[in-house]
Amino acid sequence: MPPRSSGSTSPRRAAARPPSVPRQLAAIEQDGGDGELRFADGATLAVTSLDKPFFPAVGLTKGGLMRYYARVAPALLPAIDGRPLALKRHPDGVAGAAFFQHDPGRAPPAATRVAEVPVEHGGREPRYVGGDLATLLQTVQLGAIAVNAWHSRVGALDRPDYCVLDLDPMPEASFARVAAVAGRVRAALAEAGLHAALKTSGSRGVHIVLPLPGGTSYDESAALAEALAAQVAAAHPDAATVERALAARGPEQVYVDHMQNARGKTLASVFSVRARAAAPVSTPLTWRQLARVGFDPGAFTAATVPGRLSRLAAHWRLGLERPNPAAAIARTVDGGRARQRHR
């Protein structure tokens, strides 16, 4: 029997592995903007208008945004795995109109992950669920820019695995003021025997994220956030406030927002791009970085973050790998309630 030529194809040979997703996206964008992605598991996803400018100020297209998410997926996907996603769609990019969408529509692509989740008004509705690249890219295909994920995961939707304080500065507050308030929160955490991970919001603020032990309820998470926020605002009223009304806040104060800890509330995920002109990214920090004089959160963008991904992802893992002690959480909540009673 003659030897098989090197150019022959065996019917038993596995199908060729597709090119990397970023390479496919670049090729589709260069070839008119419409095409079909193929994933290593055989799944496919139709994508369109990849050449549409999404961030004109920095030259980032819809396809470029997808390529960013494909590059950071190894760090981003574990963070949103199992979490229902809420979409804010920008079909024409940051310069166009935007609208919210929660359900995935009548016929979501077969490659995407969808689950029925309980909703506020009763009953259950479908939601996209994070954790795989096809679903993430489908949200961008629909025009979503930020990745907004629940604090809990499918299978335990009543049990958040983190609690968040969102430091939101008033217009005249500098980022140095935000960093100072974050330092006050860190001191309160240390005093209580608690710890947190830290990331930029992707705007002018900071997210302080406390990992929670299994079984924590949303009520407990909300009470913990409220106790910490109220303690910091009471001790440093010149810099921090918990006043919800804008008119009640000073022009240089930082709002310590503890109100985002309820089922169905979402947070811009770590490594999420935000819908602002320069394509800023919500990026993990160390406390030492935050305290550095002249630190600029605007340095973290869709153009700069992928090259630093390994180090940044390590910061995030380290901050969240150890849940806070249930006993310390209970003491903090009890202390907050006692302070409220004595006001």
UniProtKB/TrEMBL annotation:
It comes from the Bacteria. InterPro entries: LigD_pol_dom, NHEJ_LigD. The keyword Ligase applies. Residues 61-316 form the DNA ligase D polymerase domain. Keywords: Ligase. Residues 1-18 have a biased composition (Low complexity). Residues 1-23 are annotated as: Disordered. GO terms for molecular function: ligase activity. PANTHER family: BIFUNCTIONAL NON-HOMOLOGOUS END JOINING PROTEIN LIGD. This is DNA_ligase_IV_Ku-like.
